[in-house]
Design a protein that fits this description.
Elements (H helix, E strand, L loop, with lengths): L4 H9 L10 H15 L4 E7 L5 E6 L2 H13 L3 H8 L3 E3 L11 H7 L4 E9 L2 E10 L7 H23 L5 H27 L3 H14 L4 H9 L8 H18 L1
Antiparallel strand pairs: 1-2, 1-5, 3-4, 4-5
Length: 254
Amino acid sequence: MPIDPTDLAKSIGALDTLDPERGLAPTLQQLTDAAKQLFRADGAGLMLIDAEGALRWASASDQTAQTVEDGQERLAQGPCSVAFSQRLPAAIRDLNLEPDWQEFTQVLVSEGICAALSVPVELDGGIIGTLDIYSGKARDWDPSEVAALQAYAGLVASLLSAAVTAQVKGRLASQLQAALAHRWLIEQAKGVLMGREDLDAQTAFERLRGAARSSTRRLADVARDVTAGQPLPANRRDLARGQAKQAKDRETAT
């Protein structure tokens, strides 16, 4: 359903008094609560990358949203992963008509979620996480909803930037520092793989993540090797799967 610009302005305006110095966790909780209300959604959440370069849930409006975010963290699947790897909005409009979400589908079904929308959260030119909303009913996400969630993501970035400036302490602040430290490294490594192996952004990210898992190394360390010109450990099955997916996407697009 379309988002009225006046409603968006009022919603964001009501959050002007948020101060991360009073606590980053409750600040982000207020923001996800407000997003849930604005979008008339059944849940909202925020994910940030950690020191390993993996998305971890940082805040959620309620238990349903937290469980769904946990599922994406555990499985490394879902619109959050797509939005993060491609730096573009990612959506599920109707879970019943989109069978490609693999194990993550079961998480959504168990929580009564049928649709989702995720947008990247960017700070200082690098992506550090995603902002996400969930609906129990199918939704053909309107462009105004995508734009509104992106505006909310901008507010998240401003609050996180303020938290860094104020040197806020705590678990979330530590996770934020890790996100900032690794955002450029991962983006650069993705770019190297995209050029070297003719991959799209999502497949390049999956290649990095798969190499890190198979070698039991941190994603950031693998990314550092790639940017230094070292070859990525071969995982032919993942590469073949990614290339097949790209070919299918190109065929669909035409």
